[in-house]
Specification:
single chain; 256 residues; alpha/beta; Rossmann fold; 2 domains; 6-stranded mixed β-sheet; binds adenosine-5'-triphosphate; binds magnesium ion
């Protein structure tokens, strides 16, 4: 059974069919890429999966359960976490607190544990901070723990965002253009980090415009154009697919 399955998902905005009968199947443990030109419908697919939009037609199945149209909160609780195309952090909070907010999202604490500090509260908080430390180490953020997130350079903010997403302990991590705005060095680090996350047992679904990164890291790719899947396959097949070259790479040349 696939971890995530989209079955003929269609999302329409007014007259615009942003996602058009899209079917994809993502196996547990893989790094799956969605690529396509600007406006192809990639982010809209993510918004449908995470419950931001309800598709007009089709089904989204996660771990065998139909999650179509559930609230973002319920979907997140089931084990799907995302990062956004534009960074969304608590700028005034420290790096560590930002990552901790991912822990609190899935905490088993009840609200009164924060007022009447029960033994469970202290134990749970301690475990949470140990986890936060683990994620800061993984992303090389430990030395920045007390700094405010908003004062960090772009590449670091991307890492904080990913660490926070990972702190929710998702089964499926969805990354919308994680390499956007990164320099070459940061991009190489990102490749490493994504592979480490996958090795922790997390399945990864990502949108990315940077072709080097996509071809280097993903095991399977679907290509969207005008909301439709025009190709799918292994990176090496996608790279040489004339339909893809025309739709996607062709357009990129135009843009340059
Ligand atoms: N909330 C919305 N209301 C109306 N139209 C929308 C909405 N969100 C997206 N669209 C439209 O749907 C289409 C797909 O947009 P989407 O953001 O999914 O593309 P994308 O593939 O993520 O593009 P990019 O690579 O630029 O991020 C676009 O034509 C966009 O203008
Ligand atoms: Mg997008």
């Amino acid at each position: 059974m696939a971890l995530l399955e989209l079955d003929n998902v269609t999302k329409i905005f007014g007259g615009l069919v942003a996602v058009d009968s899209l079917s994809i199947s993502i196996e547990k443990g893989m790094i799956y890429g969605i690529i396509g030109p600007n406006g192809a419908g990639k982010t809209t697919v993510f918004n449908c999966i995470t419950g931001v939009y309800k598709p007009e037609r089709g089904k989204i199945i996660f771990k065998g359960k139909d999650i179509t149209g559930l609230s973002p909160h319920r979907i997140a609780n089931m084990g799907i976490t995302r990062t956004f195309q534009t960074i969304r952090l608590f700028n005034e909070m420290s790096v560590a607190e930002n990552i901790m907010s991912g822990r609190h999202f899935k905490s088993r604490q009840k609200w009164w544990h924060g007022i009447i500090h029960t033994p469970f509260y202290y134990k749970d908080e301690k475990e949470n901070w140990l986890k936060v430390k683990e994620y800061m180490d993984l992303f090389g953020l430990t030395h920045l723990a007390k700094m405010t997130a908003g004062s960090q350079p772009y590449g670091i903010q991307r890492k904080i965002e990913m660490a926070r997403a990972l702190a929710t302990e998702p089964e499926l991590l969805i990354l919308d253009e994680p390499a956007a705005g990164l320099n070459d060095k940061e991009r190489l680090e990102l490749v490493d980090t994504i592979k480490k996350i996958r090795d922790m047992g997390v399945t990864i679904l990502l949108i990315e415009h940077n072709m080097d990164l996509v071809m280097n890291i993903t095991e399977y790719i679907s290509v969207l154009n005008f909301g439709k899947k025009i190709a799918e396959g292994k990176p090496e097949d996608i790279q040489n697919n004339p339909v893809v070259i025309e739709a996607y790479l062709g357009k990129e040349e135009e843009d340059e």
